[in-house]
Prior knowledge:
Blueprint: H1 3-9, H2 31-48, E1 57-61, H3 69-74, E2 78-83, E3 94-95, H4 104-107, E4 112-118, H5 127-137, E5 138-149, H6 166-175, E6 179-186, H7 189-198, H8 209-230, H9 233-237, E7 247-253
Parallel strand pairs: 1-2, 1-4, 2-3, 4-5
Antiparallel strand pairs: 5-7, 6-7
Helix pairs in contact: 7-8
Amino acid sequence: MEKEDLIKSSFLPRTEVLERHDYKPTHPVEVFMVRLLKHHIQEIISTYGKPTSSNPRVLDVGCGRQPFRKDLEALGYTYISVDVQQNPEESVDFICEIDKPLPDSIFSLGTFDFIFCTEVMEHVADWNMAFSNFTQLLAPKGRLFITCPHFYILHEEPYDFWRPTPYALRYFGDRFGLKVLHEIKAGNAWDVIGTSIAISYTLPASPTLKNRILNKIISKCLSFLLQLLDKRHLQNAVNLHSPLYLSNIMVFEK
C-alpha cells in the first residue's frame, strides 16, 4: 500500500450503523453476547448506578438508540448522551468522539455522577484520550461503567480496534486515578462455542460423495448443537470449564 493510500485509509468515513432500540439480539451471532450483557448491565445499574447526589447526571457514551435510557432516568438521573452520529430519533445530545477533544458545552454542564459506556471502547482508537476525558467528566466519587467484548466477531469495520483484557482496563483506570469497584469476565465456554457456531457454515472440501455427506452431517450437528445452546439445555446440564469468555465488565470509581 502506498503511503498516501495508508494515510487515507486511517480516515475512512464511518458507516451509518442502525443501533438497537431494544436490547435484544437481531442476528444469531448476537444471541449469547446480547442476552449476557443485558443481564449484567441491568444488574450493574441497580447495584452500582444508584445516584448519590441530589441532582444526579448520567452521561451515556456511545448511546446509539439509548436502550437503557428509561432504566437510568427511572433512578432519577438527568440523562445526557454522546455518540459519533445522530440516531433516527434525533435524541443524541452531543455528536462527538470520546477520544477527541470534547466540546466546551459538555463541560459547561458540570461533572457527571455516572458514565455509562457499554460496547463502545473496542471502537475507540485512543484510550489515553478517552480515559482522560472520562476522568475530567466524572464527579468526585463518580462511577464509570464499561463493557467491551473479549471474544466476538469484527463489527462496524473498520472502526473495530481492540479486544482488551481486564488488565488493559485496569491499566488505564489506574493511570488516571480510577479504582476498580467491580470486575467480571462474563460468559463461559458454552457462550463462546455458541457464538462461534452461529457465525460459521460448512462446505465440502471437495465435491466427492464422501465429503458432501460428511458436510451435511456436520452441518446438521452444528445446527442441532446451536439450538441446544440457544435454549440453554447444555448449560443447565453440564458446566464446561475454560479460560475463554465473551466480555469484560468493569465499574470504576473516581
